[in-house]
Amino acid sequence: MGAAALRALPWALLLLLGPLLPGQGLQANATRVSEQPWGEPGGITAAPPATAQEVHPLNRQHLNHSSDGHSKPRKAFPVLGIDYSHVRIPFEISLWILLACLMKMGFHVMSSVSKVVPESCLLIVVGLLVGGLIKAVGEKPPILKSDIFFLFLLPPIILDAGYFLPLRQFTENLGTILIFAVVGTLWNAFFLGGLMYAVCQIGGSGLNHIGLLANLLFGSIISAVDPVAVLAVFEEIHINELLHILVFGESLLVVLYHLFEEFANFEQVTIIDIILGFLSFFVVSLGGVFVGVIYGLIAAFTSRFTSNIRVIEPLFVFLYSYMAYLSAELFHLSGIMALIASGVVMRPYVEANISHKSHTTIKYFLKMWSSVSETLIFIFLGVSTVAGQHYWNWTFVISTLLFCLIARVLGVLVLTWFINKFRIVKLTPKDQFIIAYGGLRGAIAFSLCYLLDYEHFNMRDMFLTAIITVIFFTVFVQGMTIRPLVDLLAVKKKQETKRSINEEIHTQFLDHLLTGIEDICGHYGHHHWKDKLNRFNKKYVKKCLIAGERSKEPQLIAFYHKMEMKQAIELVESGGLGKIPSTISAVSIQNISPKTLPVERVIPTLSKDKEEEIRKILRSNLQKTRQRLRSYNRHTLVADPYEEAWNQMLLRRQKIRQADHQNAYLTVPANKIDSPTMSRARIGSDPLAYEPKPDSENLPIITIDPASPQSPESVDLPNEVPKGCGGLPPSPEEDEEGLVMRPKEPSSPGTDDVFTPGTGDSPSSQRMLRCLSDPGPRQEPEEGEPFIPKGQ
User: 134 near 382, Cβ under 8 Å?
Assistant: First the structure.
């Protein structure tokens, strides 16, 4: 076997090095190989000899050399060569991307320009200039093809918006978004298409050949709000999340195009076709969502097993999302809805499985990818405007622009009036204005119109011209004026505040509180179903899609862990972990006077075992989410036969306690004569209702003039000294007049009214003061009140 291997080794070297050998050596080797007998024993079976038609390349080269008789003159070795066709496509793509990045950087450097003009407007202007220069040179400018737009440029923008979608605001306003997206899109398409058909019938000979279905198809293209333009403009003006999510959510449902395109190809549309068409409207939308959910769950399940190979974690997010988009487009479903659904579903589970470095990679790569795609879209929109064929019709173009604005305003006003009947937080007139004014059109409408076939739609150039006019008007006029209008109307903007743990606790508390209120009232609202979904997610889904103990970690602990990590990263990036001082000379150190620096808070370092022990203690001792018991409804409760008797018993006990409570203060000894102080207090509070008791003949009589009654506040009861008190004998005048009421003398400046004794502060007056302040017998302790003995 070893001899056979050595015998076969020269053949292998000949096949590998044959093309590199010179002609003479190759000829000798070829002759030597041909002289080798076939089927020589030695353990290796050789191939049969080649026929006349099948000549070995080495033998063919040998024959060519022998037939020529002499070799061709050898060409000099090329030191430098140019082959542009070999690298033309990637080289031009790189140049366009480089141009887009440089333009984007230049706009942000010129802050005075970027504050006035939106970035999308400047990019379209750059595209127009580049397209004009290419055309002036004599070349044909490139046109933004629909396949490139929908397959490569649009997915990164939608994935970035879907992956970082504010899920709470989206779910809380899902009903409003669906009404604007479904009903609003249908209204705009039919309203605009019907009016444009009327214009075509009245407008003259150049428009009479455009039928109803073609106008409805044009209305479905131009009525859809563009998500790329909305994201580009709304992120610059920092509008609040409610308006942002309403307008962006409305722009996601772009499904009417294929419906009317199919109708336009039919010779006759029947009722069954219309019913199936509207059924396909919902199938396309919900089918895209279903495909996105499936791929999102698969991506989350795959990320569970990537703990040993962290490098490829971001790749799974991008690939599964893009596969969801392509799979939806494969079945003519909504790829945009598939991307949004996959990003929303996979994010909470993927972020729990992947490392923080992978999370940072996903975040910045998506932002970079979407920013470059958005820049290229607007630049190519300007270039395609110069390069495309246009057919200008004043009647059609002006009517399209006018009816687009009217349909948008009417649709928003009518739908908002209906929506506000069911919303707790109403949409104000300012919000309605921003929603109507922010309905921008963009490259999606341009690309959809570019997909139309000339054979079936010979008016495509006129449609394209009208669409470009509407795009330029919405992007330039509305996009440039929406920022000053937002400032003028004082519309609430997005607050760039970090969410605190306190806010998270109160948010969860309010969610549970509202869920309990809905359960008690028997009303199953969105809080009830949200709580059901959270319980199902925690009980089943998290255990399958999240690895390790993170699946059992409470939401509050997970949020605290995320905040902790974010603060640590910000601390490291800001250089707060202690900077190493630079080398300072000894002389400079002696010249610097020592200053007392503020004591910095030292953060104790914990070991991993100690940290894990603290986490276990928190998990076991924090109050867990309440377990759902039986849902009670006031309409379905069974009447208790003993309920009335229990109520009567409770009422009797309550009355007895109230009576005991009053008797504890109002009961006095049976044969005790009222003191003069108590008598004065009663007659001062209510002189007309006072009637002296039969056994009170010996009490002094108080004479009060009803014409000028004194208020109780002007009488100082402690200074009213009865006769014979205070160590002074009663005067004859006092015997005749009875008890004398003396007003309190004003205190001299510099004395304390409370602690400085006055002339009437005798021991007897102090005893009367204590009598007035005494509430009476002490109240018995109520039932169930804790008894704490003295000394504890």
Answer: no
User: HSE on the CB side for 190, CA within 13 Å?
Assistant: 7
750 φψ region: left (φ > 0), alpha (ψ -120 to 50), beta (else): left
Q: Where are the alpha helices (DSSP H) in 524-642?
A: 526-536, 542-545, 555-573, 586-591, 608-621
Would you place residue 764 in the very low, low, confident or very high pLDDT band (cuts 50, 70, 90)?
low
Decide: 327 and 295 in contact? Cβ < 8 Å: yes
Task: Give yes or no for residue 318 having a pLDDT over 70.
Answer: yes
CA torsion, ordered 650, 651, 657, 658, to nearest 10 deg: 160
**Contact indicator for 738, 701 with CB cutoff of 8 Å:** yes
Find the angle CA(418)-CA(424)-CA(427) to the nearest 5 degrees: 55
pLDDT, residue 573, reads 66
Confidence of residue 40 (pLDDT cuts 50, 70, 90): very low
Would you list the DSSP string of 314-376?
A: HHHHHHHHHHHHHHHHHTT--HHHHHHHHHHHHHHHHHHHS-HHHHHHHHHHHHHHHHHHHHH
Residue 204 pLDDT exceeds 80: no
Mean per-residue pLDDT over the chain, rounded:
74
Paired strand residues for 493: 239
Structure confidence at residue 232 (pLDDT): 84
Is 4:44 a contact under the CB 8 Å cutoff? yes
Listing DSSP states for 479-530 in one string gives HHHHHHHHHHHTPPBPP--PPPHHHHHHHHHHHHHHHHHHHHHT---HHHHH
Judge whether residue 201 has pLDDT over 80: yes
Other residues' Cβ atoms within 10 Å of the Cβ of residue 493: 14
**Which pLDDT score, from 0 to 100, does residue 717 have?**
43
- What is the pLDDT, as a whole number, of residue 313? 93
Q: What is the pTM of this model?
A: 0.64
Whether residue 457 contacts residue 436, with contact meaning beta carbons closer than 8 Å, is answered with: no
- Buried/exposed 534-559: b ≥16 CB within 10 Å, e otherwise: eeeeeeebbeebbeeeebebbebeeb
- Whole-angstrom distance, CA of residue 189 vs CA of residue 408: 10
Element (H, E) at 390: none
Q: C-alpha angle 620/621/624, rounded to 5°?
A: 85
**Is residue 156 exposed (0-12), middle (13-18) or buried (19+ Cβ within 10 Å)?**
buried
pLDDT band at 715 (very low <50, low <70, confident <90, very high): very low
What CA–CA distance (Å, rounded) separates 552 from 622?
Answer: 13
Residues 275-300 as b or e (16 or more Cβ within 10 Å = b): eebeebbebbbebbbbbbbbbbbbbb
Confidence class for position 678, pLDDT limits 50, 70, 90: low
Q: What angle do CA 594, 596, 600 make, to 5 degrees?
A: 130
H-state helical runs in 686-726: none
Give the 3-state secondary structure of residue 194.
helix
Per DSSP, the three-state class of 304 is helix
Q: How far apart are the first and last CA of the chain?
A: 100
Residue carrying structure tokens 């005749």: 736
Task: Between 75 and 298, name the one with better pLDDT.
Answer: 298
Is the pLDDT reported for residue 317 higher than 60? yes
Nearest to 142 by CA among 376, 441, 372: 376
Place of tokens 């992007």: 475
List the beta bridge partners of residue 239: 493
731-740: per-residue pLDDT in tens?
544 444 444 4
CA-based torsion, 73, 79, 84, 87: positive or negative: positive
